[in-house]
Amino acid sequence: MNDSKEAGKQATALKTRRLAFEQAVTLEEAESLIATLESADVSAKVIGLEVSYDLAMTDLEGIEKLLQTANVRLGMGPMARLRRAWLHYAEESEISNLNAPSKNAACCNRPPVK
What we know:
Blueprint: E1 14-20, H1 27-36, E2 41-44, E3 48-54, H2 60-69, H3 78-98
Antiparallel strand pairs: 1-3, 2-3
């Protein structure tokens, strides 16, 4: 967490991910998916999406759920599943770090700073 950040300001963590589809989609289908992901900046590709989003607003798991409701299947090979699982873990850790108290706050064995 940045020490120079003003108190009460929401932390942002911008992410860009490439999500490969199990099967290629038409450009029209890709464009309809963009409309579904309204809180993210999305580039349509026939074989997948490149999604940029703020981790404070959504995460990769939420985007995957939206795509699943739109009947889009992501790549299911072992490497694709492993990569997504690792990204879920990394984002979960980053979210918990963003929500952690600042260095000056009392925590564990540190008394509050006066």
